[in-house]
Design goal:
Elements lengths: L1 E5 L4 H12 L4 E5 L9 E4 L19 E6 L8 H13 L4 E5 L15 H10 L4 E6 L2 E2 L21 H12 L1 E4 L5 E2 L2 E2 H13 L10 E3 L4 E2 H12 L4 E4 L2 H10 L4 H15 L12 E3 L4 H7 L8
Parallel strand pairs: 1-2, 1-4, 2-3, 4-5, 5-6, 6-11, 7-10, 8-13, 11-14
Antiparallel strand pairs: 9-12
């Protein structure tokens, strides 16, 4: 019984695939580019081309029972998600695991959007599902490694290194609109572990829509202090305006509506939107803390 991992060689997808493979569970990647790690099979799946959806269910030697859904760079994933989910149900898929986000807009319900709308659809159809809702995540790839700039914000949470790495390396600064709001940045491995449990041992999870947070709760100035300690040079947090942040996202090539949405996400984080997840009974706390992660990956922040 294989797991289909959509979204190609994403950080979370690769980490999940390694956990599954290490436990003897077959994995099949599906991606537009075919970019997957060595040792795994893949098929073509382009969210913008429904004619490719069937290929995943024709792969020799794979009976797809689980589907891990992620929508990198897809701002309105519901139409594509509905088409694939309907096909998957017809092909006998047992459970769907959706990578969503912790923001208000991704809560299940009539006002949801983006992956929240997919969550709402899965629930309305009465399907067996788990929706992962990580807060902002830390990862190990830089912006220059992304397939395109849209990959920078492929999920609502931000990838810390990909977004801030350039400023830290070149100018020793972190620029945000969040000077006091604290965030429980979560590691990719912790997200992948919850995804693994959702597929292999779902009874282990406290609920079917877990919010996933990291072991540390830090403000961006506190992150700058942690970087300063690990790197041996002074890293400073600089507060910028909401307009400046929106312009930066527009510079990445994002649609204006989405750039504005991301700026609002940051505005809410400054007001405590991410910190409040610690009091939510649905929350799972990971093992990786931001300080620990920085120390482990400090070479990635070497000054240019």
């Amino acid at each position: 019984m294989s797991t289909l991992i959509t979204g190609g060689g994403s950080q979370t997808g690769i980490a999940l695939a390694k956990l599954l493979q290490g436990s003897g569970h077959p994995v099949l990647f599906a991606s537009r580019s075919g970019r997957v790690p060595d040792g795994f099979e893949s098929v073509k799946l382009d969210w913008s081309d429904p004619s490719t959806y069937e290929e995943a269910f024709k792969a020799p030697g794979h009976e797809i029972q689980y589907v891990f859904l992620q929508f990198a760079g897809v701002y309105d994933p519901l139409p594509a998600a509905k088409a694939l989910i309907e096909l998957a149900v017809k092909r006998g898929v047992k459970r769907f695991v959706l990578l969503s986000a912790s923001g208000e807009g991704t809560e299940k319900g009539p006002n949801s959007f983006s992956t929240g709308a997919v969550h709402t659809y899965l629930d309305a159809q009465g399907l067996d599902y788990v929706v992962l809702r990580p807060t902002w995540f830390i990862g190990t790839r830089f912006l220059s490694d992304a397939a395109n700039c849209h990959e920078l914000i492929c999920y609502n949470p931000e990838n810390f290194l990909r977004l801030y790495g350039k400023g830290i390396k070149e100018h020793n600064v972190i620029q945000t609109t969040i000077p006091t709001g604290r965030i429980p940045f979560v590691g990719v491995d912790d997200i992948a572990q919850v995804a693994f449990d959702a597929i292999v041992n779902v009874e282990k999870l406290p609920n079917r829509e877990p919010i996933i947070v990291g072991a540390d709760l830090l403000s961006h100035p506190e992150v700058a202090e942690a970087l300063t300690k690990s790197l041996g040079r002074t890293i400073t947090h600089v507060t910028i305006t909401k307009d400046e942040l929106t312009k930066r996202y527009l510079g990445f090539g994002l649609p204006e509506s989405y750039a504005e949405h991301l700026a609002i996400v940051c505005e809410k984080a400054e007001k405590g939107a991410e910190e409040k997840h610690l009091d939510d009974p649905r929350t799972i706390t990971g093992k990786v803390g931001t300080r620990e992660w920085i120390e482990k990956h400090k070479e990635a922040f070497a000054a240019l």
